[in-house]
Amino acid sequence: MPLPRPPLHPSLPAPLGHLPAWSSEPLALLHTGAEAARTEGLDVFGLNLGLSAVVGFSPQWNRAVLTDLETFRSRGSLSSLVPYLNGGVIVTDAPEHALRRHALNPSFSRSALEGLTAAVRQKLPDFPAGRTDALAWADHAVRDLLNVAYFSGEFDAELLDRFLAPLRRPFPAPMRPHPRTLVAVRRELLRLGRLRANEPRPDLLSTLIRQPGWMEDTRVSLAAAHDTTTHALAYGVWHLAQAPQWHTPEQHGAVIKEVLRLYPPGWMGSRRLRRSLEWRGHTLPAGTLALYSTYLTHRDPGLWDGPDHFRPERWSHKPPAWAYLPYGGGERICLGMHLAGLLLTETLAALPLLRTLGGDATPAPGLTLGPAGPLWVARA
Ligand code: HEM
């Protein structure tokens, strides 16, 4: 029996039948697919994206995808199609993946990052007086703070902006750094790496350069860090401006969790099936693109009360296992989750009281999920 799937585009060949909706309104397509799956008592549905794809959204599916690294491979997944992410640890598969992660993990551990807190605090951005777009502000703030955390602020700021800018273009614009920019980024990394080989600084690059493949991992992790953290910060600022009663350092933890539940920047994780797999009575053939939808899981009415509402108070209780995965899970869990947590917590703690002035907070999925924007706010 074929998998349930959303209706196909009437005038396209069937194997391409979901491509237009995938690029123009992917969240609506996901909701339609999940409804079709639920009608048949299933937790997966099919998509025809030129390549045969299966999308799952239950905790059981998430657990399988994120823990069975022999079956669910990263190479050949959607990340391999994005030049920014096609490299380093992101597309390294088991068994080499574990070695590469073990080498990188200490640089990004909670205890290693403690040494960065003082430097981050010193460079926290001021919030401007007057009407401000929280999305544009978050974009600059995160770029500058990443420069501090990785490079003690020594990376050429204009080059960093040029490198990261294409990531912010809306889907499906090509997200490809200009080849000349890439050459300049490599040259800059080499320059900063050499300086640290002689004289280490209290920054990430000083420890990263000790690993083989450090240039690639520095570059892809910067790309993985920027948009994700920017979008989470922009939504955090927006919700604090809307609901200032949550704007206390004690409550920011719950606010960040709730923002990452409602708008998981990593809205869709992708793998490729290395072998065929039996799932709930269906055979998923080898080579299938296997997707897990954090967005659908985080808004599943069977898992969450009022899933579409911003309710930080829900975090007084722990969610079911594998129902909340803003940073993925298992061995490939986000390398930068503690760094993101540090930047978000410190930045929110330094914000003045704000109020919203209008804008468009609708989630707009691209490479990562963020607000359509702008998000106009001002000091209260
Ligand atoms: C709020 C901010 C962030 C969110 C929501 C986020 C989300 C994620 C998710 C969902 C994954 C797993 C993808 C998958 O396996 O399917 C991931 C992996 C990854 N993230 Fe993040 N991320 C964030 C910030 C960062 C930062 C600051 C860095 C900087 C180091 C980073 C670097 C990476 C890397 C290198 C991986 C691949 C890990 C591997 O495959 O072993 N991320 N992230």
TrEMBL record:
SUPFAM superfamilies: Cytochrome P450. CDD domains: cytochrome_P450. GO terms for molecular function: heme binding; iron ion binding; monooxygenase activity; oxidoreductase activity, acting on paired donors, with incorporation or reduction of molecular oxygen. It holds the Pfam family p450. This is Cytochrome P450. InterPro entries: Cyt_P450, Cyt_P450_B, Cyt_P450_sf, Cytochrome_P450_monoxygenase. It comes from the Bacteria. Transmembrane segments: none annotated. Belongs to the cytochrome P450 family.
